[in-house]
Each structure stands twice: as structure tokens, then as C-alpha cells.
Hints:
The chain is an alpha/beta fold. It has helices spanning 26-34, 141-147, 172-187, 202-212, 236-249, 341-348, 369-377, 399-407, 417-429, 434-441; strands at residues 42-47, 50-56, 68-72, 78-82, 88-93, 114-119, 126-128, 135-137, 156-161, 193-196, 213-214, 220-223, 255-260, 268-272, 276-278, 287-289, 296-299, 302-305, 320-321, 329-333, 353-358, 381-386, 410-411. It has 3 domains: 17-93, SH3 type barrels (Roll), CATH 2.30.30; 105-321, Rossmann fold (3-Layer(aba) Sandwich), CATH 3.40.50.1170; 329-441, Rossmann fold.
Amino acid sequence: xTELSSLSYNSKERNSLSLDDSGYSGLVLEKLSLSKIQVGxxxxxxxxxxxxxxxxxxxxxxxSDATHIIIKIDSGYNIGLRLNHESTIRRIKGGTRKRxxxxxxxxxxxxxxxxxxxxxxxxxxSKVDYRxxxxxxxxxxxxxxxxVPELRNYANVHAKxxxxxxxxxxxxxxxxxxxxxxxxxxxTGTDGVVIAHGTDTLGFTSAALSFALQNLPVPVVLxxxxxxxxxxxxDAAMNLVGAVNLATKADAAExxxxxxxxxxxxxxxxxxxxxxxxxxxxxRDAFQSVNEYPLFKIDEDSVKELHPxxxxxxxxxxxxxxxxxxxxxxxxxxxxxxxxxLVDKFVDAEYKGIVIEGTGLGHTPDNLQLPxxxxxxxxxxxxMTSQCIFGRTDMNVYRSGVELLDLGVVSCExxxxxxALVKLMWVLANSKDTEIAKELLLTPLxxxxxxxxxES
Length: 456
């Protein structure tokens, strides 16, 4: 495990806090109060003849009850215990206040690059509030230095919280907001931008920024965390430090996603923003390049190029911002038994485009052809991607594909479905002519289409 490997819990750095708003009530609160125990104290619990030792953690007030208590054991994991009237709680020692070193802007190190870290609400750039148990965004460079002290060795950090949104709630209007904030930071002369983002829709946002931020002079790196920062297996610190290294050292100027490359803490991979997908729900190496190679390998302090970027770092380059997205675009996955009324609903709702996630090389059941024709006749752009993870669409191989092409369906080559969705939203917001929009959809702009990738 490297020195950057994880941001793990250290009981010696816990704040000892009162039981106000701790989430405890009833029997548990009564026992804690009698023993004058506070959140953050190390305690011993005897229950049914067994003894458990750990640090008292707060409980969420949502769904809490009067009989369960949460402690963090030496392994770093939290456990819940159900108490009864015979259970006893003993205070071993109180928590101690964490010491922090004040970092003033005037004390920035002149020999270090400057990096802007923008938080959108993901836990990667957040800190745990041990009074409430909440994970809150790091509001300043001081918060980030306190959470990940190693950062002070790599860059002068300028941190801003631009929103605090769970990534599943991110909307296209948020992409516009993020893109504008990134452009503003770049215009101040920063050496790179890091965006802390939740992992659920990280690939959508990275694709959106890849189209919205054109002619980039410096890298823009999106980074997330699969494990929260108070878990011993957290990837938060290593990912964040790696993202800062990538943003300041890589000879590249494009949008990238940086995450663990394998389950251990040996190295990280940077992926092209339009060619990356979350392929696992919880593994630390969940993000992988699809139909593309990773661009960089980050190992300790080194940033090694694995595949040429779209363009090199150039501080004289002037960024172009095209950050509007048409929200009335849908992603529709075909399945056995799908009914054409689903397509009709989008037409009736005055949608502007539909990206179909078809089977194989780009197919749909025959019963969708008439609704698709009606949609195209109504002025919608209908595009085809594949449900397969790898490969590309080729609608000239089988009859159903050829018939869809004849109807006017646009084959999206090797674009990922989510990238095609985002690009169609962007294309429709930046082009008033349908034919020009179709042409732009199939024009490689940010590495989203590779005409040389494997066909089947």
C-alpha cells in the first residue's frame, strides 16, 4: 500500500462531541448519558456476555430506532449492536481534537503548480462531520489539506464547491453550470482542473464536458471515489492526489476520468472522457476504457503516457465554451416484447431525439419500425447504438439493420450509448438544421468515434 493509498479512520484524531443531534434516542441515549459518553469517545459495550470495543459513531436520524448503537472497530469498519436493558456501556477514553495546520494563500509554495478543484457533491472531495455523521463537501483548500495532507506536496490548491448534488440527480443544466465554472477557472491561468464527482453518472458528465469544453489548453480531470473516506478500503485520497498529479503533470489537454486501475493501491488509470464506463457497482477499479486504451498510468508520483491524447497542453490556446444541451432527448433500450407505444410517447411529448440501445450490431424488433418511422417523419433524430459493451454498430449486415437505415436511423459507429445520448443533446442545442445535426453527430469531436475500432 502506498502512502497515498487511502484516507482511513484514525481514532486518535476524533473530535469528542456531545450527543445533541447524534441520532440516538430511548434506551441507547439513556445509557450513553448516564455514562457521560459523547460521540467520538472510545467505549466498551458488554452484551449477552460478549465485549465490543470501538469509537462511538453518530446515527442517521432517518430510520433510526431506540435500541441500536454504532461503533467503529479497530479494523476501520462500523458495526451496529442491538442493546437491551442488561447491556452495559463503559467509557474508555474521550476523543481528542484533531490538529490542523493553517494554510494561508500568502504561504503558497512558488515552486508548485496551481490546480483548481471543483466539487459537485461527490464524497471524493468531502469530509465527514462526526457530530452528525454527514458527509459534507470540502469548502476550502484548508478543508482539503486537512482531509488529504499529501496535497500540499503536489500543488497549490484552489477549491470551490459549485454544487452539492448526488450524481444520480445531475441534470443537463448542471453540465452547463460545471462547464462554465471550468472555463472560468481556466481563464484565471490554472495549470489544470480537477472535478470531484459522484461515480453513478460520472461517465455522462465527462462526455458532456468533452463536447462543451473545446480547444482546451490544460487537462480537465474528473475523479470519484467508490468507498467513503472513513473506510479503511477508501480510494478517496489516492484518487484525489492522483487527479492533481495528472492535471498538473500530464502533457495533454482534454477531459479525462481518473480512477483505480485495479483492486489494490498500486496505480491509477486515466480514461478518455467519451470512452469510459462504470462496469462494476462497487469495485475500486469499476471504471474502464471501452473501445479505447487508457491514456495515462499514475503510479506514486509518476504520470506515464500509455496512449496519445487528442491534443497536448498549450497555455496559449484559448478555450471555446459551447455548454448548451437539449434536454428533450431519450435513451431507449430495446428488449424482447417492447411495444412501439414507448416510441410514440416520446413523439407525443415533443422530444427532439431518441438514442436507441439496440441489440447486436444495431437491431430492434420489427414492430418498432413503424413507430420509428413516425418519429423520424415528425422531425426527431433517431440514432442507433449497441447494448454490447465492446465493438461497433454495423447496420448493413442483417435485414433489420438495413431497413432501419432506410427509415433514416443514424448508426452511431462505436459510440457508447450514454456518450451518444449526451452528444445528441449537445448537437441539437448547437444546430438548428436537422441534417447538419445528423452530420455533426457522426463527426468525431472528442475521441468519441474511432473509425478503426473492431467491427464485430
